[in-house]
Amino acid sequence: MIEVRGLTKRFHSPRVVTAVDDVSFRCEAGAIFGLLGPNGAGKTTTLRMLATLLAPDEGTATLSGCEVRQDPTGVRGSIGYVSTTTGLYGRLTAREMITYFARLQGVTEPRRRSDELVERFGIGPFAHVRCDRLSTGMRQKVSIARAVVHDPPILILDEPTSGLDVMVARSFLEFVEQARDEGRCVLFSTHIMSEAERLCDRVAILHQGRILADDTLPALREASGHRYLEDIFVHFVQTARDEDA
Ligand SMILES: Nc1ncnc2c1ncn2[C@@H]1O[C@H](COP(=O)(O)OP(=O)(O)OP(=O)(O)O)[C@@H](O)[C@H]1O
Ligand SMILES: [Mg+2]
Question: Could you give the 3-state DSSP secondary structure of residue 204?
Fold first, then answer.
């Protein structure tokens, strides 16, 4: 459902950084793919290119058959993207925000869909509050509801549970598992290893824009000689750092 080949992105200010360096991977329908990596590894840059918010310098990314540069509109129609910097309009209430996005995405009954999502994500108690007055976790719930308003087959989530309390994070993880069971493809980044361990069918570890490992958890355990994802992660990143030094 997602096929990435040779994806590369350089930034030129203040100095040249190859944020994403010849990255290739595949994510299947009905599976959860986790993108891990230290701060600055290139996770957000990769996800932003897949969400058509940033143009790649090289390489291709095809989502549900649509290539990001050739058919960005097609890509946007098949993905729900949740970023760490939530693009909510401060002056709209939570409910208005969701209804507005439902209209933008051409959902047939935007109000009904909005009511459904308000209920699904427990937004009811603050549905009437302006987005610029919501707490971090409340904003995140609205962002997630907004992202899935058109029922997309692909979810791209950048640190979706950061800032969420334990209860909310847990119900969000259940939502992701349900999405997978419905046959959706989920690609997400996280720093929370237990979350990736619980959810992921496949994990890629990114370091300085390059993929160090991309495999199932059992295969990563085998390759690293460690049981827990936290140790596996440290193993790969530390080995790469030692080689760079
Ligand atoms: N707009 C930009 N202009 C210049 N450099 C950028 C820009 N966006 C990202 N970078 C650089 O690209 C690299 C990768 O950043 P990115 O945000 O993709 O990392 P990340 O893996 O998401 O990190 P984190 O875990 O901290 O969120 C970093 O060196 C960052 O400074
Ligand atoms: Mg990031």
Answer: strand
pTM confidence score? 0.94
How far away, in angstroms, is 76 Cα from ligand 1 center?
Answer: 22
CATH architecture assignment, domain 2-85+156-244: 3-Layer(aba) Sandwich (3.40)
Q: Ligand 1 site: residues with CB under 6 angstroms?
A: 11, 13, 17, 19, 37, 39-45
Enumerate the domain spans of the chain. 2-85+156-244
Cβ contacts of 233 within 8 Å, gap of 6 or more: 36, 193, 205
Q: Of 59, 43, 67, 66, which Cα lies nearest the Cα of 7? A: 59
CA angle 68, 74, 79 (to 5 degrees): 80
Q: What is the largest CA-CA distance in the chain?
A: 57
What burial class does residue 156 get, using C-beta atoms within 10 Å of its C-beta: 0-12 exposed, 13-18 middle, 19+ buried?
A: buried
Which residue has tokens 């080689």? 243
**What value, to the nearest 5°, has the Cα angle with vertex 139 and ends 167 and 157?**
75
pLDDT tens-digit map of 180-219? 999 999 999 999 999 999 999 999 999 999 999 999 999 9
Q: Which of 7, 12, 16, 43 to mutate to test the pocket of ligand 1 (most atoms within 8 A of CB)?
A: 43
* 92 CA → ligand 1 middle, Å: 30
Tell me the three state secondary structure of residue 217. helix
Question: If you take atom 8 of ligand 1, which residue's CA is the nearest one?
Answer: 45
